[in-house]
Amino acid sequence: MQILGIDIGGTGIKGAPVDLETETYLAERYRIPTPHPATPEAVAQAVQELIDHFNWTGPVGAGFPTVIVNGKAKAYGNMHKSWKGVQINELFTKKTGLPFTVINDADAAGIAEMNYGNGKGKKGLVACITIGTGLGSGLFYNGMLIPNFELGRIRYKKEPIEKFAANSVRKKEGLSYKQWIPRFNFFLENVELMCTPDLYIIGGGISKHMDEFAHLLRTEVPIVAAKTKNHAGLLGAAYAAMLAEIEKQKS
């Protein structure tokens, strides 16, 4: 099935039509800057621009950087505060006239990794952690998504722990990987107090540098770098939209 996948982030919005059987792009990935302020109206217009770029007329899957329940934003993440409570799938459908499936961006990245990457065929509890602006997490049990498992929202000093241990914080404070890794180890300790995964899959741009800090990780849980890398968000969003279309056809 061919689906347009869109990955909406705080700084950029990326999209590409994907053939999910062959895991290939049908056109070169296209990126536009996230509008500022990133209001619902402005982002919907940016999504329309992506669709126009590809002259797309079919189903669309979108990953969005906050808690999403049945296509509705339950928070606003690093986007504009007016996103809270917005039924995003309906907003985008009204704007574009196309069927939309909208899920959490970390869930989307995890879906891609579990179906096309290093999580494929893995049983037990797998935690896909995306280290970037925040600490995104997709949790899977025997390959099935446990949605909106926001591990980066664990509290630390009255703030989400991602404000202490994310890669954006490391960069902002000018920390080396050796200086930063105790913070990430502390995050993993807290995760393991809650659920102790059988496997961690680490994504985000930092995963390209795992050889620089993997030996400093204290966890006994096996850790691998994500295979789908910066394609994960839009690939997983497209996969989620494919599943939604299949369910529609059954009903």
The structural domain count equals 2
The secondary structure category is alpha/beta
- Contiguous low-pLDDT stretches (5 residues minimum) are none
- CATH level 3 topology of the largest domain: Nucleotidyltransferase, domain 5
Helicity range: 25-40%
Radius of gyration: 17 Å
Q: Distance between the terminal alpha carbons, to the nearest Å?
A: 18 Å
The dominant shape is: globular
Mean pLDDT: 94
Structure description:
With 251 residues, this protein is an alpha/beta fold. It has two domains: 2-107 and 231-250, Nucleotidyltransferase, domain 5, CATH 3.30.420.40; 121-226, 2-Layer Sandwich (Nucleotidyltransferase, domain 5). Helix content is 33%, strand content 25%. It contains seven helices and 15 strands. The chain has helices at residues 40-54, 88-96, 105-116, 162-165, 167-172, 177-194, 232-250, and strands at residues 2-8, 12-19, 24-25, 30-33, 60-64, 68-69, 72-73, 100-104, 125-131, 135-141, 144-146, 155-156, 159-160, 199-203, 223-225. The strands form four sheets. Strands 1, 2, 3, 4, 5 and 8 form a six-stranded mixed β-sheet that branches. The protein has a five-stranded mixed β-sheet with strand order 11-10-9-14-15, with helices on one face. A hairpin with a 2-residue loop joins β6 and β7 (72-73). The protein is globular, with a radius of gyration of 17 Å. It starts with a strand and ends with a helix. The mean pLDDT is 94.
